[in-house]
UniProtKB/TrEMBL annotation, chain A:
InterPro entries on file: MbnP-like_dom
Position of the signal peptide: 1-22
Matches recorded under Pfam families: MbnP
Species of provenance: Flavobacterium zepuense
Keywords, sorted A to Z: Signal
Protein name per Swiss-Prot or TrEMBL: Copper-binding protein MbnP-like domain-containing protein
Domain Copper-binding protein MbnP-like: 38-233
Amino acid sequence: MKFKLQHIVAVMAMAASLVSCNDDDDSSQNLEGTFGDAELFFENGFAGNEFNLGAPYINGNGETITINRLNYIISNVVFIKADGTEYTYPKADSYFIVSEEAGSFTVHLEQLPAGDYTKVRFGVGVDTAQYQLGLEAQQDFWSLAITNNMASVWANGYRFVNTEGTFTSATVPLAKAFSMYQQNTNGNDNYNEITFNLPNTARVRHDIAPSIHFKTDVSLFLDGANKIVLANNLTADGSAAVIDGGDNLVKIAGNTDAVFSVDHVHNESGTEHAD
Amino acid sequence: MQTNFVKTVMGLLIALTALQVLAAADKDTLTLPPNFSKYLYEFDDCDACGCSASGGGMGFSSMIDKNFVGVRYFYQSYTSRDGIFRNSPWIDENFNTMQVWARVPVTKKIQVSAQVPYHFHNRDLSTGHQEINGLGDITVLGLYTAFQTQTDSTSFTHTLQVGGGVKAPTGKYDGANNGSVNPSFQVGTGSWDYILAAEYVIQHGNLGLNAMANYVFKTENSQHYQFGNQFNYAGTLFYHIQANKLTLVPQLGIAGEVYATNRQFNEELPDTKGDILFGKIGVEAGLGNFSIGLNGMLPISQNLTGGRVEANYRWSVNLNYSL
């Protein structure tokens, strides 16, 4: 028997008919009045490499640093659309601690207005205005800060960044302790807000919780545009290096913007990073 | 849509099976080429699943059999960076595919070819072992012989085939898999893709050269992910050795794949385009209606997924029955 061309045409037509089915496109969806979640996920690195507590890293200041504690406060999150309109996350709920030792890397945000966001802004630390609201206005977060060594007594305020560990350098052959507490001191508001352009739009939807994956370079706190050599900051008895005030913190504030960058954005539902 | 889709796929499969049966039954009424020119046809295609996945460039044809139905297994080894840092761990990814493939004549000048793959892939992420398996994307292609010299009239023979086809999203696409590692760790693209293809074969004596190129237009899937369009090309030298009823066809060539940037919600995703060039070597052995093929591919140069994915090698083995 002869096989007819028509049969092929029929098969192809069947295939083509499938193809013409079009699926729903969400671009036409009305997002008005709908909400969704989002998260900021922080992954710490050291000069482009993975970061681990307790591992020695050599920085550009020629010092070998072993960090045993790395915590920082992320605050005042703002999501920004392409047209410049901003959504400010409710301020009272907008303080978070990222902690290596606690394994807390995710800032989970709820009930954001659905929309396409192209920028995100957050602060590192706690702004003066919030602090001046007093202890009672922020008891919960203060307690969390105490638990995570991000505060000690109210009068001293919050530690924005807490880095503790040991170091050696050319002049310090035997490891000495160091601590670096970024905070608001001596009238210097060392609180930074940083705005990030997202490499891909974060699409907040009722069924899509975008995850914005931040990559940090913690080496830059001390070894950024401004250099802070630990060996030059020893205590009077020479037992440890302590960075907790004065010009050093202004320098660190200047370095902080570069510490954080956005690596990528996930828009799949169900791809949130596990803590 | 779902039911429709299943129905249509079933329809396609039934139609194809029918084609095969008919073609087989019709065999002696077709003008079969003499043994020699039977080897003229090769077709390289891929049921590629985004960048690097699922056997792009593994070929879609046999140098022994113009028309066949067979099974093929192929393996692809990749190493991918599991993480965002320079020293993030590199993990092995193993892509296994078992495939029913066929190429059947419809008229003297028209062939239909099809691939029905089953994938079983695995990898060891830093978070644990992961396996995915299942039916892959089914590809159906129509090929038209646009030009063919008479074998006995010249010392050089030329054949040019052009065609087009469709790849159906019969494999499951799982958005959760395209995280920060290899976005192509999938058994399907989830999209309807369209293929344009051309193949040219020139042969002189026992020696031949096959040159092919095809382009795959990929569309957005229901999860708004769109793998980048893909260009495949290959050049293969082959040589026929005939010993009684046994035919041996050693082959040597190159194969390349170029991938455009993946998109999601119609936005380009950084570091998802790529290209790779393979050297390939293989041999086919035919006896009677059966043939066995072995193929290996090693990368010569590559830049896949922003350097986060490295192809190590591919190999395949197939058993075909000549129709």
